[in-house]
């Protein structure tokens, strides 16, 4: 796995990066048979995309969770793919990475939505 490297090293952003990495690993291990720190090409590509979005996120450490975000900067196909990963890996995170899971759900997910910045990406596929 190529880890997400962010310009902003704030603890909140680092935690966000470690959380999505852990979720993609769980998903890829169970669905695509990878092991250890390995990811298949498709999951690595999704993780790299998510990392790039996070790096450019207009809210940075003020962000809520992406699912509650008023901007939704993901392209529709990537958003659908990451949602599938979250749906599968979310419930499993509590057992495998309880600290990250609790922080994501109870701390980051309860933040106030920031005021919207930038254009909302349309839901339609092209
Ligand atoms: S969906 Fe929202 S919170 Fe998530 S990276 Fe994009 S702009 Fe930031
Ligand atoms: Zn995979």
Bound small molecules, deduplicated: iron/sulfur cluster, zinc ion
- Spatial shape: globular
Q: What value does the average pLDDT take?
A: 90
Largest sheet: none
Secondary-structure content class? mainly alpha
Low-confidence stretches: none
The number of distinct β-strands equals: 0
Distance between the termini: 29 Å
What does the oligomeric state look like here? single chain
As a percent range, the share of helical residues equals 40-55%
Strand content: under 5%
- Return Rg in Å: 14 Å
Describe the structure.
- The chain is mainly alpha-helical and 126 residues long.
- It has one domain (11-110).
- It is 55% helix and 0% strand.
- The protein has 4 helices and no strands.
- It has helices at residues 11-32, 41-56, 76-96, 98-107.
- Helix 3 crosses helix 4.
- The longest helix is centred in the N-terminal third of the chain and has 22 residues, at 11-32.
- The radius of gyration is 14 Å and the shape is globular.
- The mean pLDDT is 90.
- Bound molecules: iron/sulfur cluster and zinc ion.
- The site of zinc ion has 7 residues, from helix 1 and helix 2.
Features:
binds iron/sulfur cluster, mainly alpha, binds zinc ion, 55% helix, 4 helices, 126 residues
Describe, in short, the structure shown.
The protein has 126 residues and is mostly helical. It is built from four helices and no strands.
